[in-house]
């Protein structure tokens, strides 16, 4: 199952959608063959005896979604993306097609829309990132994983490493330290020898032992990663980041620690973690996050936005009143492009919205241009941002 399908399944399991989720669904469905989706949905309704909601129920659903689509009042200036999709008509399209998309896209044998879309990419456009990474084994051997075939990877220190469907899977044994490195425009997954799974975002690295043979499990991260840590009370799990350590017993959490960002953010989904920075220690409950300010070293705790923190893992860009400069750093890492700003442009402008990470660069920038206040010029792998 690919990332958009996984995200749609997660959305349909929720009792209520956020405005970003509504807009993402609308944008995603805009790029899928709606007539075929509707036909397939109706056929499934007939086959399984599903009842079409009564008109008054549909109106209630539309009203609630419409309320969610309307952005709340803010004190800071915000550029709302997807402006042309506001209103009850947009909500109606989402409600009418969401179930169809989920049923149809999850049907076995369905060719992925993203693959079809990328096949017709114009030569001057830039493709989105993908499953690309380099594995450095304990003996120093380097393997480009996007060029390696599925199956065992030969190693020199007794590592038992298997590549399958853009994921590394480690078996027991081995004595070397390994490193997984994603470039700009790359992402990858790894299952460590203890069963812990890690999703590594673009421009990131994870250093770890081939097998955890000591009384603790320690890995070192740069960049961003999402962790699902296998429970082992006898051997606590530690993630070391520059200036910070996250201690885990068994949990799911996300760490965003890019060196070019002002804050290192740890967001807890399930379980419990303890974040240590110098003499500061904070234990998080699910739904909380810490931020470590790089310059001052100050560690702070707050309620976290779990969905926003892990959206990248689900194939989504989400921006919630984020500074334009931060948004463009995300774009730069994922599309492997350089970003420049025209003279006089305030990169402190705030942006809200969402889009698929599978969009090509030109499509992603067109979505950003829906703000009506920005223009993007692409020359090779350089993007210049200016006012319209």
Automatic annotation (TrEMBL):
Record InterPro entries: FecR (IPR006860), FecR_C (IPR032508), Ferrdict_sens_TM (IPR012373)
Residues covered by the Protein FecR C-terminal domain: 317-385
Keywords from the named record: Membrane, Transmembrane, Transmembrane helix
Domain FecR protein: 181-274
Transmembrane stretches, start-end: 87-106
PANTHER family the UniProt entry points to: PERIPLASMIC SIGNAL SENSOR AND SIGMA FACTOR ACTIVATOR FECR-RELATED, PROTEIN FECR
Protein name per Swiss-Prot or TrEMBL: FecR family protein
